[in-house]
Amino acid sequence: MFNTIHHVAIIASDYKKSKHFYSELLEFPIINEVYREERKSYKCDLKVGGSQIELFSFPSPPKRPTSPEAAGLRHLCFSVENVSKAVKRLKKKGIKCEEIRVDANTGKHFTFFKDPDGLPLEIYEE
Fold this sequence. Notes:
By secondary structure, the chain is of the alpha/beta class. The protein is built from 2 helices and 8 strands; from the N terminus they run E-H-E-E-E-E-H-E-E-E.
C-alpha cells in the first residue's frame, strides 16, 4: 500500500537559520521555495535522497515541549555510509554530535545531533 516516505514537514522558529542549516550545512539541495503571503509563511522543499523535507516558517510557532520523548514524531533519521565520517563533516561545520553508539539489535553505528530548534536528528549507518 505505502511505498516510501514522500516528505517530512518541519516548522522553524527562525526560518533563515534553519534554511541555512539544512541547505548549507547538511547540504540538502533546494527544490523549490515560496513565500505564501496569505499565511505570512515561507515553504522550502529540500531534496533528501528520494524524499523531501518541507521547511516552513509561521508567525510565533509554539516550542517543542520536551526532547525527544514528547508525544508525536520522536526524531528524524538520515542514512549514511559511514557514521564516523559523517560526524567529522558535521563537527567541521560546528554541529555538535552525541557520542557514536552501536545498535544492540543490528550492530550498526548511529548518533544524534540537533537542528537550530532542537529537533533531534539521527544519522544511522547503512
